[in-house]
């Protein structure tokens, strides 16, 4: 039986931080209440419209799409303070598709042109777009209720009739609301009934629902407090707890209608529901057409471009190339995707023509058409990439081409697309930030007025799921006994978590998707609503990716989504190319570099991977040093394998590469497929090709097989197993062999990686390694420029430069460009933009004047020639303190004479403006002289402090450098730890200066710290637990020198020290700390803790041949460190000690490599300086 009453005024959590109801829960609740229709009317937005429509349809409920709009008091473009900040509400419901599209236009206009505190429309624009809409007078904030409250009945009547004229006879309703707790509402309801009779306007009854159940009231109130920044005990705040806005059942509304004696207000809700009939087309794709030159058919044009493009890249087109091209083109054109490929090819070509580094990742690299069109840089035939992993005839959704653009120029590419297809047809895609479990707990704690530490403690007890997966509050209580006990034993904690559970996953804000851009064939507002990015000026979609992209959801608005992901490493490549072009006059084509470059593979094999795309983590670096890669396919494999799960295969991969005799294949027919991976299954594509080769699968069937393996659905796996084994048997394999091969590939479902994705990443990884190996100074200058907003990365890069014998110099007024500046193959300077308190304007002025007028020859020359209002005390101090002005004098003298410098500038400007320096072009006799008072020169320590203040790090030297030598024999430097020269779990000593401190509280509410320890080589994190902190809290301060002991941890693949003892170093007497350490050692307080040792290797002269000598030498060279190597050669019953010139880092892996050559138990380690050794 149809519902007699229908909820027509309903808010979801898309009424940001006001509505509590999540759309699936809302629809589920409507179903429970036996409602056969329901409306969604969020405040000024349509964020949830598509989700709501689909959820309702799947539940068998009619969706009524609406919106509660804000009406501006005057024109929507009027934004005068004090007048236009006020607005009135109006309820709109779409009767049909025309009404739906008008809602889109109204909300888009409101956001883009009418936004003033709220997204507003005006009556004029509403009148133009009222077709297909039903209007209602809304809540107490509606214009008509407001006029009635002000006893302006006749104006209310005029307004009501005005809206009736806008919407048409019978399409505008006066809205009674069921809020009997609100006196004003009761008064208004009576007046609205009178007005209805007087003006002959129909009535409806609504609830203005903001949550689902009465006991959600407090959670919704908390949500409003989060929005307004108030606490719940604030008596002056907006408070909605005095009345109920839950989604009530029909009987409540029927009873209230009887009290009002308005049965028609109920009947009209049913009438409106019956009249609203929206059928959205969510299965058609709306791709823009590519404008082909001379209006030729685009299917012919793509064939021509593809063939010419491939010939240009490869020199010729082979029969295999032609067969593959024709096969791909036939599928692409038959599915009408050719315009899509042409569009992507066009903006990628434009990017390349502008010198912007752009490539693609993912399955698109499996397409030879994509490669020929310049969309990808990977030839799929060279890398054995199947096209079917990207696109098949039966694929129900369009292909997805993800573009990676250098992040420093990503905006240029998007702007080109906007200009090409029209600004009204292109927009960034919006995305919704929701309140995750931990954030919800902290927010609720704050609005309840409870201590931050309490919320922080609870939040930290909510674990992170495997590989970053989400764990809800409910699940956290279930799996964490400590949290459960806390929850059950503390009333405050229970209240926090109960409320947090209700607001968890509510939308908190709207932002811009990191990559997604939508391109429409017509105005975007014919398809979806738009708005302005909340924290910027870009136009973005109100619908998110799930409502737009058919590759994510089956039912969407079906527009072309292009991914433009900004990649930092591509910026490094782009900047490095430009530096090489500028300094060496070499134009590098990254697609034509040699793929067998010895310098590149040597760099990777030696672990010099800092800044190399995908290969720079310490764990990956360690494996590369073992692997000694010598081809691009090794890099591909490492990219695929270095992940949780498949990482276990890496040692076997390395073993097989080093020992070809150990390579085996599951079946001889698989050799061609698995030869490059030494017989191992690594990629998802390997599964496809195995099924095609052994079991006779067609390409599309093989792709389905791959998907089934990836989804790990038992029923699908069983079906595929039967099909696979039967297919193998038909192709001549014994049942036992087919079963054996199945058992070999089945576990692969847990870790298979997209081969096309891996090949794309491997190419970029190789390109960055190539640039670093062949143009090291240019590459590092580019890296530091790209990372200039990250001081930690700059510190790391400076340390890397030191290892590469490249000097990183302070900025120089006559040499520095805006960014990090290549000086020579052995020197890089800080750019002027790196100096704090120095704006872009003054930097541009300095460089422009230097370019036009030559270098600055003196301080006076600089002050006279740089004309900028921003050349003031702040900017001058910044230049001087950073060292940029060192060529003109001593830093402290210039700083101390700052008033004289400023007076000189002022005097010169005054004289210049009054024309005192020249008459009719002749030089004047008068000259202003700058005289500086003498002062004492700044000490080295002061200069370094200034550099750290202005540049974020020490540049000309390091405060720890002068005393680091005292500790060199007993400590591990920061660089060694970061490079994993010391095995995780090892106990070490380290020393340096504290440069940063982050304080947190543990679950037990105890203070602990994350400290940045910096020495002259690099900086690393030291974790200081409460127990150590309590022992000597005075040590842990910024700029203090410390000597500490602790254990190496490489959690999250980032080495750090877990400190267990610490001593402050007196810079004036640093040796004194060593006495303290030896005292503790003598008293048994510290064991096994030094890093400098002598390594004694015993060898038998009879077996010590030339090959063993060479192999040992290679190990020593690849593992440079601080431990001296001695050979103990046994010959004729005697032992001869040979002191080598090798110093190595020593850890478990190095030990294993040496023992493989000389046998076990032939290595002895001896401590130095009577300090104890540490265990491995």
TrEMBL record:
Enzyme class (EC, first level): transferase
Boundaries of every Polymerase/histidinol phosphatase N-terminal domain copy: 6-73
Presence of the UniProt keyword Lyase in the record: no
Chemical reaction(s) catalysed: DNA(n) + a 2'-deoxyribonucleoside 5'-triphosphate = DNA(n+1) + diphosphate
Source domain of life: Bacteria
EC numbers on record: 2.7.7.7
Name this polypeptide is given: DNA-directed DNA polymerase
Organism for this UniProt entry: Candidatus Kuenenbacteria bacterium CG08_land_8_20_14_0_20_37_23
């Amino acid at each position: 039986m149809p519902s007699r009453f229908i909820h027509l005024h309903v808010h979801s959590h898309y009424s940001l931080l006001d509505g509590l109801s999540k759309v699936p829960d809302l629809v589920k609740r409507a179903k429970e209440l036996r409602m056969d229709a329901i409306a969604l009317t969020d405040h000024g937005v349509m964020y949830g419209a598509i989700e709501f429509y689909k959820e309702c349809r799947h539940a068998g409920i009619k969706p009524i799409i609406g919106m509660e709009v804000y009406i501006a008091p005057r024109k929507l473009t009027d934004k005068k303070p004090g007048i236009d900040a006020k607005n009135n509400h109006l309820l709109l419901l779409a009767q049909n598709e025309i009404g739906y599209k008008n809602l889109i236009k109204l909300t888009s206009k409101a956001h883009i042109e009418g936004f003033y505190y709220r997204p507003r429309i005006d009556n004029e624009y509403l009148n133009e777009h009222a077709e297909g809409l039903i209007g209602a007078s809304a809540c107490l904030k509606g214009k008509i209720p407001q006029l009635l409250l002000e006893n302006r009945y006749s104006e209310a009547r005029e307004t009501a009739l005005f809206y009736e004229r806008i919407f048409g006879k019978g399409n505008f309703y006066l809205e009674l609301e069921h809020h009997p707790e609100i006196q004003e509402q009761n008064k208004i309801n009576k007046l609205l009934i009178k007005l209805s009779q007087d003006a002959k306007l129909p009535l409806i009854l609504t609830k203005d629902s903001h949550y689902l159940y009465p006991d959600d009231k407090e959670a919704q109130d908390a949500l409003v407090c989060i929005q307004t920044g108030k606490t719940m005990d604030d008596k002056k705040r907006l408070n909605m707890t005095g009345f109920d806005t839950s989604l009530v059942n029909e009987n409540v509304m029927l009873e209230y209608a009887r009290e009002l004696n308005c049965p028609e207000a109920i009947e009209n809700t049913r009438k409106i529901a019956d009249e609203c009939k929206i059928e959205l087309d969510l299965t058609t794709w709306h791709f823009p057409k590519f404008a082909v030159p001379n209006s030729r058919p685009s299917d012919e044009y793509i064939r021509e471009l593809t063939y010419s493009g491939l010939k240009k890249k490869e020199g010729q087109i082979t029969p295999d190339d032609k067969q593959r091209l024709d096969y791909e083109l036939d599928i692409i054109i038959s599915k009408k995707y050719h315009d899509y490929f042409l569009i992507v090819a066009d903006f990628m070509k434009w990017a390349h023509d502008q010198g912007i580094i752009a490539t693609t990742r993912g399955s698109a690299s499996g397409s030879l058409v994509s490669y020929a069109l310049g969309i990808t840089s990977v030839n799929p035939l060279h890398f054995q990439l199947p096209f079917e992993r990207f696109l098949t005839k039966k694929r129900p959704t369009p292909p997805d081409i993800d573009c990676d653009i250098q992040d420093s120029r990503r905006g240029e590419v998007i702007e080109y697309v906007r200009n090409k297809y029209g600004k009204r047809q292109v927009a960034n895609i919006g995305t919704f930030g929701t309140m995750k479990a931990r954030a919800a707990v902290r927010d609720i704690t704050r609005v309840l007025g409870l201590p931050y530490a309490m919320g922080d403690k609870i939040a930290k007890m909510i674990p992170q799921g495997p590989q970053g997966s989400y764990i809800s509050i409910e699940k956290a209580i279930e799996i964490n006994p400590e949290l459960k006990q806390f929850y059950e034993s503390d009333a405050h904690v229970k209240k926090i978590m109960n409320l947090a559970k209700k607001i968890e996953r509510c939308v908190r804000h709207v932002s811009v998707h990191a990559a997604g851009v939508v391109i429409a064939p017509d105005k975007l507002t014919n398809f979806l609503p738009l708005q302005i990015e909340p924290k910027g000026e870009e136009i973005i979609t109100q619908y998110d990716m799930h409502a737009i992209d058919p590759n994510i959801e089956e039912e969407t608005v079906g527009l072309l989504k292009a991914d433009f992901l900004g990649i930092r490493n591509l910026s490094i490549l782009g900047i490095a190319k430009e530096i090489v072009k500028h300094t060496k006059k070499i134009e590098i084509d990254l697609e034509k570099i040699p793929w067998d470059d010895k310098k590149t593979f040597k760099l990777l094999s030696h672990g010099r991977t800092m800044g190399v795309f995908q290969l720079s983590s310490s764990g990956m670096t360690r494996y590369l040093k073992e692997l000694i890669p010598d081809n691009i396919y090794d890099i591909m494999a490492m990219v695929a394998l270095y992940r949780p799960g498949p990482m276990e295969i890496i040692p076997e991969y390395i073993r097989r590469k080093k020992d070809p005799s150990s390579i085996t294949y599951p079946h001889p027919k698989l050799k061609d497929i698995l030869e490059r991976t030494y017989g191992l299954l690594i990629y998802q594509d390997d599964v496809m090709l195995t099924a095609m080769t052994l079991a006779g699968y067609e390409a599309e069937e093989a792709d389905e097989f791959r998907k089934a393996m990836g989804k790990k659905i038992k029923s699908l796996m069983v079906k595929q197993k039967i099909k696979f084994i039967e297919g193998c048997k038909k192709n001549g394999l014994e049942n036992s062999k087919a079963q054996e091969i199945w058992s070999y590939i089945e576990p692969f479902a847990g870790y298979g990686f997209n081969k096309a994705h891996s090949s794309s990443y491997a190419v970029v990884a190789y390109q960055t390694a190539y640039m670093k190996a062949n143009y090291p100074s240019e590459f590092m200058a580019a890296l530091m420029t790209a990372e200039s907003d990250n001081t930690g990365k700059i510190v790391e890069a400076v340390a890397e430069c030191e290892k590469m014998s490249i000097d990183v110099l302070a900025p120089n007024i006559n040499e520095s460009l805006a960014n990090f500046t290549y000086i020579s193959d052995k020197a890089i300077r800080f750019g002027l933009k790196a100096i704090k308190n120095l704006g872009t304007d003054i930097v541009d002025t300095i460089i422009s004047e230097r370019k036009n007028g030559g270098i600055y020859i003196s301080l006076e020359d600089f002050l006279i020639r740089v004309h900028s209002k921003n050349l003031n005390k702040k900017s001058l101090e910044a230049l001087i303190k950073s060292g940029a002005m060192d060529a003109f004098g001593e830093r402290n003298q210039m700083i101390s004479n700052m008033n004289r410098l400023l007076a000189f500038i002022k005097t010169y400007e005054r004289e210049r403006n009054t024309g005192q320096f020249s008459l009719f072009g002749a030089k004047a006799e008068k000259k202003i002289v700058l005289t500086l008072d003498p002062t004492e020169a700044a000490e080295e320590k002061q200069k370094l402090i200034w550099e750290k203040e202005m540049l974020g790090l020490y540049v000309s030297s390091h405060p720890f450098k002068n005393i680091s030598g005292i500790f060199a024999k007993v400590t591990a430097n920061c660089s060694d730890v970061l490079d994993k020269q010391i095995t995780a779990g090892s106990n070490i000593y380290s020393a340096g200066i504290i440069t940063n401190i982050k304080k947190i509280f543990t679950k037990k509410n105890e203070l602990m710290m994350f400290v940045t320890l910096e020495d002259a080589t690099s900086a690393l994190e030291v974790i200081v637990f409460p127990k150590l902190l309590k022992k000597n809290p005075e040590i842990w301060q910024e700029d203090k020198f410390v000597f500490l002991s602790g254990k190496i941890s490489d959690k999250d693949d980032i080495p750090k020290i877990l400190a267990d003892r610490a001593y402050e170093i007196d810079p004036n007497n640093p040796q004194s700390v060593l006495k303290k350490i030896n005292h503790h050692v003598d008293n048994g307080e510290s064991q096994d803790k030094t890093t400098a040792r002598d390594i004694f290797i015993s060898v038998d002269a009879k077996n010590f041949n030339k090959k063993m000598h060479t192999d040992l030498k290679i190990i020593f060279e690849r593992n440079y460190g601080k431990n001296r190597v001695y050979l103990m050669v046994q010959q004729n019953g005697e032992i001869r000690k040979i002191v080598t010139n090798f110093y190595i880092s020593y850890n478990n892996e190095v030990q294993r490599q040496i023992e493989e050559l000389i046998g076990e138990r032939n290595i002895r380690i001896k401590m130095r300086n009577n300090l104890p050794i540490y265990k491995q």
